[in-house]
Each structure stands twice: as structure tokens, then as C-alpha cells.
Amino acid sequence: MIVDHLNKLRAWLFEDALPLWLKAGEDAANGGFAETITLDCEGSADNRRGRVNPRMVFVYCEAGRLGWDGPWMDVALRTQAYVERVYGTSDGYIGALATPDGELLDTSFDLYNQAFALLALSSIADVNSEQRGEACAKAAALLDVLKSRFKHPVAGFEEAEPARAPLGANPHMHLFEMCLEWERSENLSTEQKAVWSALADELGELCLKYFICEKTGGLREFFALDWSPMPGDEGRALEPGHHFEWAWLLSRWNKLRGDDRARAAAARLFEIAEVYGVDRERGVAVMGINDDFSMRDPLARLWSQAEWLKGSIAMLESSPESEWPRYRQSMQDALKALELFFEDVPAGLWKDKFLPDDSFVEEAAPASSLYHIISAISELDRFSKTEVGQKVVTFESAK
Questions:
Q1: Cβ contact 380:69 at 8 Å
Q2: Rounded to whole angstroms, how far apart are CA atoms 104 and 92?
């Protein structure tokens, strides 16, 4: 039952994962979190990408919002301070790679990293009234950098200065998510949210007009500088996990705006990912398909299963009751797929890559995955308290 899955996942998160990453993943000497924790439960000494620690700010703020009684606020604030101290550049954006002892090795601009820097600031602004004004000001300053130096003339942003192809849907997806996170906060004023709501609308339109193929409804990953699909094989790449993720985000946006185009696009994206992007023999969502929906990359990664779960919840909430059985089954399938990655590893860790031969790659657990995991658990928790969620649970109990 869904409630049983939720209780199991919450217990794993609160009792195992969050304490373990705090104990073994956080670097007491230098600050910040390690890139990975080994299967011996030790933080790695690998260089740290600029996206990982902002994700951990979100993770521990979300833990607080979920009701974890650990020191989530202190962890979030000191991790945010670490991000600003180590990754901040004179150009006003965060850099790409640093050593564990805090030397910034790569100061280059990566739009993807800026999306998570802004997501972290949105979390701080939401949960900490004393830091709210400063977090909003820092976010506004970073957004000004993006708009003044990297704004695309049509919509969205460039990937570099000067502009170079390919442009990517993925960083814009996370910018879209970040904007919706600013907008969901009940602790921010309408004025504080306005700029993020406007950007969310721009990015939603960008997705509907350019990312999604008008003929098939599939969402491409890579684009030329005019937002046309990249020529050749690169322009054919689709990712089922991102289809699930975009379905979730467009459904959130539709709730706020009442845009039927977004609802229809989300349903089609979910359908493509579920029909063509799930390996039914292994029961997992794969990494890649082509624009004709043929298999491209049968590797399955944990994050795609988490996004499958979120997408199925979005479909349940946006569909008539007659369609619930299908999406309820999909949600149950996604839960089973996600939980596969938690088996046979120390409690609080996970496996990341599931190969076509039914084996998992034996490797350290990446910190970046916890952002996907806690987001999925949070969505399931929120859904379980809604009217639709209660009806789904009641239906399960009556079976």
C-alpha cells in the first residue's frame, strides 16, 4: 500500500539517510558535503561540483519542512555559507568545481549550477525569516547576472559567453523548478514572488514552443542557438526521466495558471516515458530513448525512478477519476523501482546505476541523488494528505 511505502521511506530518510550524510558526508574540517559516500560509509576526497552543495541546502531545508527533528536549519545555513565562500566568483555567479579543502579549480559558468544556487536561496528564504531578506537580495543579484550576460534573445538563457551550442533543456528545467519553488513559499510576499512567477511563465512557454516536438509530443534535450533541434544524432536524444520530471513541473504550473496546454503536454510526456522509457523486464525507467521512441540507452539510474514517482502523482492529481487506476498502478511501479536502489547497501545509502544485465554498478553513493530522493518522498507525503491522495488510499484499503 502507498501508506506503507511512505512510512518506510520516511523512516529510511529520517533515521538513516539524513543522519548518515551529516555524520559521514559533511566535511567537519573544511565545510560542505563530499561528492559521495563509499560503501564503507566514508566521505570521498573527490573534487566537488558546484551543483552538489546547493542541492544539499535544499535537502536539509526540505527535511525540516517534512518534520525531521535533526539540526536541519544549522546544516542548511552552514552549507549555504560554504557554497558562497568556496564557489562565489568575482563575476557574480557560482563556479563549477572545487577541491575538498576549498580551492576553486574551475570558475567557468554553467547554467545548470546557477539553477541550483537559486534553488538553495529559495529554500533559505522560505525557512529562515532572519535570512530571508538577504537570500532574496542574493537571488535577485544572481538573476541580474543571468539576464544581463546570458539572456537568450528569444527566451531562456545561453550556456556560455559568447554563446555556443548546444543549448540544453535540462538547465532550463531546473530553473523552471526553482521559480516554482520561490512561488510555492507561503513565507514570501507577492512582490518577492513576482519576478520568479514571470520567469516561470517564460520558461514554461519555452518548453511548450521549442522543447516539445509538435508532431510527437516528445521533449528533446539539445538545441541549436535559435532553439531549433541540434542537427544529427545529438538532436534526437530524449530522456524518460526528464519527461517524467517535466510532466510534474508542467502540472504544477498548470495548477497555478490553469493552462490546458500545459496539462495536455504533461500527460503526453508522461505517456511517452511510461510506454517507451520503462524496461518492463527490469521494472525501471531507462536513461535514453530516441526521437522515434526507440531505445537509446538502457542504463537505469536512481534519479529517473524518483521522477517517475513524482510524475505519476502529478497525473493522478490532474486526471479524472476514471483514469486513476492506470496512474495508481504507475505510482506503485515507480515506488518498487525506486526501492530497488536501496537494497543491499548500508542503510542511508543507495545504488545509482542498474545495468541491462540485471546487475548494479558497485560504487559510492552520489550526494546529488539525495535531492531527487527527498523531493519524491516530499511529494508522496504531500499527496497522501490531499483529497485525491486520501481517495487513492481508501481505494487501496478496500481492495
A1: no
A2: 14
